[in-house]
Amino acid sequence: MTDVIKAAALALEAGRLVALPTETVYGLGADAENPAAVAAIYAAKGRPQDHPVIVHVAPGVDLDYWATDIPSEARQLADAFWPGPLTMILKRAPHIPDAVSGGQDTVGIRCPSHPVAIELLQAFKGGKGGIAAPSANKFGAVSPTTAQHVRDEFGDDIGEHGRIAFVLDGGQSEVGIESTIVDLSRLATHGPVLLRPGHISADAIAAVIDQVPARPDAAAPRASGTLESHYAPHTPVAMQDTATLADTLSRLQEAGRKVALIHYSDLAATHAAVRLPASPEGFAHALYAALRAMDGAGADVILVEAPPQDGPWLGVNDRLRRAAHGSTGIVHGLINNTTAL
Ligand code: TXA
Ligand code: MG
């Protein structure tokens, strides 16, 4: 174990925050069994207190320590996908603090696969602890996929005198979008429910437990990552189909507008652009870094080439739809000069 991991584990045990890499996005971690430490996450993020956070656990964890009434399907999914980008919502064990569960009777649990996250989890409380960690961004902002993104977001709050003792650097997150969340806490009455699509698809889950997760209904647990306005940069985001993109681009440019483009097809250069891989995995891997870069480009709008709509693209479409929420009519307004410069 490296000295920095050891120091980070000690900091967590002392009730401080540590930002850690995971294979999905970077997390802002605290001891899940220390309510004051978990409260510090909310304070640092500027996040409402009633939003639950995911508890990250080491490989081989005793699920019965964290949850009750665990269905066999949960153990099957853990065997199939952990360590990995799947979060399961289960009935919480009585000792889980309200700060973690957001006052609900459930807890979200995931065993991440990033080697640095695993090392930290194994060092922390002798491998028996849980690290409560939402994505390491300010509330509502784009999730970080590099240590630099975390430093950009929390600057002064990092270090000896800040809330965040360490930012562990594990390189760029492989998956790039947040974990799939499946609710198994009401399995007997409602079946499995997909609360957030991600790298692990509904089909992959169904292949293990023989039941296709349903889309969330009104009674499903609240999830802040499912707020319409989540994952949004400051610059308005608009999506355009490949067929209309080139035309929209030239009309925006004729109207004197600065466009930051995120695309995967062959297109002429603009004010600023990032070309992403045309595969769902490659697109997801680079998406948040692209949104952050284009947000910093001083453009009037971030124009995104709408990805295909089929199954493997569900996760990126979900995040893009949320990033674009509230920007309806922005492109039309910019072309017709009805939006102030
Ligand atoms: O990939 C990920 O899941 C990343 C990394 C750091 O693990 N974490 C992450 O955390 O995305 P966060 O807090 O940004 O999003 C977690 C989502 C939120 O929408 C939260 O409301 C939901 O999980 N969640 C957590 N516990 C829950 C529970 N008991 N019931 C329902 N939703 C829950
Ligand atoms: Mg988040």
Automatic annotation (TrEMBL):
One of the protein's GO biological processes: tRNA processing
Catalytic activity entry: L-threonine + hydrogencarbonate + ATP = L-threonylcarbamoyladenylate + diphosphate + H2O
Residues given in the record as ATP binding sites: R47, T106, S135, S143, R196, Y231
One cellular component (GO) term of this entry: cytoplasm
SUPFAM superfamilies in the cross-refs: YrdC/RibB
Enzyme class: transferase
EC number, UniProt record: 2.7.7.87
Gene Ontology MF, one: double-stranded RNA binding
Binding site for L-threonine: T24, H56, R110, A133, S179
Chain ranges of the YrdC-like domain: 2-200
Protein name per Swiss-Prot or TrEMBL: Threonylcarbamoyl-AMP synthase
